[in-house]
Protein 1
Amino acid sequence: MVANARVAEVTAVDWILAEYNNLEIGLLHCVQMGIGDFNHAFKKMFGARGETKRINAARDLAQAAYRELGLGTDFATGIDAIRHALRIRNQYAHWTWWDDSSGQLAIANLEDLAREPSAISGFDRLHVHHVDMPLLEMQQAYFA
């Protein structure tokens, strides 16, 4: 159970989950500055649920404007960076986490196990990853 996991690691994961929203809002502001229309940027990015849909909408809306400003490469780099942040966030939002008494937070993707063609009789074949504070601190720094 996560309740027994190390408090610092769980707190760091919580921060990552909460901070991702701020990255999306920052991307919205970049898009609206590029196209000059907050309403259009906001409705296109947040009119449909899904983080990947929002990133794709942002890219589609603003890439031409940033290219015209000579900032196309920088904008593409920003889009790539937020996609990477989303992958980090999704590990914690969509994977299961628990304290496995290893001294680190254990995480695993149940969907990967469910996709295995053979029958599953338990979690013995679950691919467990461990998350420690140095990794979480690096991920938080990336978000910042």
Protein 2
Amino acid sequence: MASTKLFHIGIKAVIVNNNKALVLEDTGRYAGFDVPGGKIDENETIEQALKRELLEELGLTDFKTGELLTVFEREDYKKEGINLILIFFKVEANNFDVKLSDEHSEYRWISKDDLSEMVKNNEVRNDGVKVALEKVLE
């Protein structure tokens, strides 16, 4: 009998405003710029998880969830034999004041050219983040 592969599911928000996307730098747990999000808690819907994470990480409450951008399995994550799948959504938010949580040390609004430079310098967290950002910054 085949063994079952288990996954944690994480939700990620690629926030777009004025043809730029928001990226965050972690306080030190991980290298590279990422987009906001986190694991979906037990009995939580995708929308509830997205609302919770954006409030916790940015203080953001007013946004519109858009299209599914990509799904990515993080090869570098494995806890107790459980892998992590990240689901990236485009999120639109009007001008807002970014209020970083203690999880992040910096934020940037980046353009397509900024992303190209960040990729060249290996400053993007992983390929899932890269692909999702490329899709919104075309």
Protein 3
Amino acid sequence: ATAVFVTTHNISSSNTGFDSQKIIPEEMKTNPADKPNMQTASSITASKDSNGAPVKAEDTQKTAAQNTTGKALAPQAENKETVAAAKPAESKTTAPDKGQKFILPVFGDITFAYAQDKLVFSKTLEEWRTHSGVDLSADRGTSVKAVADGVVSDIKSDPRFGITVIIDHQNGIKTVYANLASNDMVTYNQKVKQGDIIGSIGNTANFESAEQSHLHFEVLKNNEPTDPSAFLPKK
């Protein structure tokens, strides 16, 4: 009976001011949500690169951030073939048109040849001199035709070769028709076709007045005289 009394007394006295919460140890009161994710931490620590070397946690976090933002982890090599294909093809320049083959401006023989690298005797001037064209024999009044398509670039009364018409055939080629009877057959800047009549044979060339009736004909290449025989067809 004495033992029962003592035990009951001790229990009753120990319950005085009893706090039921003290039954949970202090270290166990921590909120489980505040604890670090041990699995995540261990997985970061255990990460390794392709060579088997451990990867630092901060490097892994940077990689994860790059993947989240969609940025490439490494610069991509530029495909040179794709870039080359994307460039517009350079345009190639074509050779200039050689033009039409000339026809004869008048049907006649060459009575005075081209002579720029040698001297020929002039009956009118009675001296040896150069000759920048060819003289094609034809009766006065004979129609003179354009040797090819072109544009009339000049009409003048030359003190040496008389009434003169110049036709520009493009590509640096011009033809000169001198000793004409008049200048009223064509106008400046007029387009002419091959075979169009641009004048008639006259006797207006003071430097060649002693020669038989003819057309003084020249070919200019880049405004320099060249041998017309290389352009005219053979009869």
Protein 4
Amino acid sequence: MAAVAMDLKFLPLDKNHALALFTWHYDPPYEGYNFSPTTIEDDLTYLLNPRNAFYAILNPDGELEGYCSFGTDGQVPGGSYPPGALDIGMGIRPDLTGQKRGVQYAQAVVQYGRACYGASILRVTIAAFNQRAQRVWQKLGFEPVGTFMKRGSQDQFLIMSRDYTNSTGLRSFIC
């Protein structure tokens, strides 16, 4: 089913959207977010598995502008993830990054997660170098709750969360 928030529409990720993600190319220092051409078949299976809760983020014209996920996909091996929070993963089309629209995308994802998953505590894990993403989530009231090194690498990550228990203004969605 579809949901609309702030002129953005959420649909379960389909094969065409997933294949489009494989064409996205992020320039340094964000190249770690690029999909590898050697794992496309496995990545496609993973993205399309409903248990992984991937959604396409579409603009009003139906164009793919980003994607998001809810649940364990948003967790990075080596981090501490106590139960009770909904983890969010998110990616925006490379040509749309750096245009001061990150807050709009993140707010829409938060609203969708809160409404469709009944979540009051939301959590994101962000690469420590990605100051741009950290600023976006800070503007939405997310606060750092921990840092760690990704298991098997030297990559550092930051976990941020926000408790919406006493917040109002939740948008309604068809989930």
